[in-house]
Amino acid sequence: MDRFHNKLITPSLIWLAALMAALLGAYLRGMDMMGLAALAIFGAIPAIINLVLTPFMNREWAQIIIIFAWSGLAAFASASLGVIPMGLMFICPIALAMLFLREKLLETILIALLIGGVIFFVEREGYMPAAPLSDVQISWGRVTGLAASLALLFGAMFIAANTRQVSVLGTTGTRWRDGVEGGLFEFSPSGDLIGANPLGQSQFGLNDIARIGSLSTLFKDNDTAQSHFNAAVSEARATRQNQIIRLSWPNEDNYMMSYDLRVTPLRSGGILLHTTDRSDEETRIEQLRRTQAIALRDNQDKTLFFAGVSHELRTPLNAIIGFSDMMRSRLFGPLPSKYAEYADMIHDSGQHMLDLIGDVLDISKSDAGKYELDYTEFDVADVIRSSVKMVRPSADKAEVDLQIDIDDHVPVLLRADRRAVRQILLNLLSNAVKFSKRGDLVQIGVEPETDKLVLYVKDNGIGMSPSDLDKVSEPYQQGTGAMLVSERGTGLGLNLVQNLTELHGGDMQVESELDKGTTVSIHLPLEPQ
Questions:
Q1: How far apart are CA 202 and CA 180, in angstroms?
Q2: What is the pLDDT of residue 179?
Q3: pTM
Q4: Do residues 48 and 113 both lie within one domain?
Q5: How many whole angstroms from its chain centre is CA 339?
């Protein structure tokens, strides 16, 4: 229990002690104790009422009884011993009212002034009957009453001053804590807990505030949390600035508790601690982390599987292509025309399958982060010409014209992975030819910039819609225009182009419009980044 919880006890004991001391002094001086004892007993009644009503001091009715009991004593003293000087005893109810709410203090002052004014008026007009007291009793009563009143006043002032500095849990002085979101704890300069709001107690699973302890034992069940908390408190006191930390620790059920703690240094040297429970939020974040880790592992497993399968399929496909080449070249003699046609179909189908598998293998390496770039300096114009030569047979077959827009006399130097750049160009040219109509034009060229080189492939084919543009660079995705062509692919082309471009530190831009064509621009840095 806080030492200021029952604030009426100390002033009441001071008053009773003053009466007892006055009686003892009168006894030692040989005065008549019978009359003085009666006065002392009557004067002790309000203090006894204080002690009886101490547990109910926060109740309205108890405060009214206390105020009128002391006001009545002051009125009796003024009537029997004289308004002057006994009117000073009206400070007793006012002093005790300082321990209540501010509104009660104002009410008590008005009551004291009203009663005191009535007593003064009655005495002045001569309506006050003479009190049946001896001169000794009057003299003793005046001295004792004034001395006890002053002692009670100083005692009440001391209690009220300390109560303002120390907020008490469960009293009206701490109602402001209940309006704070989260838990709130206040610690004294010495580190002792002064008070906390109910939510703060429930956060730590405590029914008795005394069990929370002090700054140094708030996290007594977890040394790591207590150490981090102590460091934040020391930093807050040293810098006079708020410190915000997040602490996590397992509770009795092994559930991970997580709290955001705001440590605020007070002018008095104490600490204000604001705690916000983040346990559910941290649990959700941890579940998302685990889900992401599982998805990443599954994706890596899938990538490795594709890479392994693609690599294994290349060997038999190369054999098929090789044997079909031998048949097409009539290396071991002529073939009937129908078989020669079949050999061409086997060769073309095998080559197409090998290209598709190559795309899968390259995209798998890229996704797995195992595609390593081999930087060399080369003339991009040479790579463009060689790429066009490789694509020209399929362009001629589709009756699509290929046009190179570069200056043959000016080399265009670039430091990059030559094989990757060729792969980019081959994919872009193949796509442009595939999605062009008979008689269309495909242009490929270079536009030098300050620190970059822009490679572009432009066609006036079937184009793409805005919705197609949003997903066309994703793996295994194709635009709706792909359904209109006879030659289908894996949907990895632009995704592979984008991955290889980003590996170089560049970026890819796609502009397209339905029935008007597509332009893909590749921005590559001139030097490795």
A1: 14
A2: 55
A3: 0.40
A4: yes
A5: 73
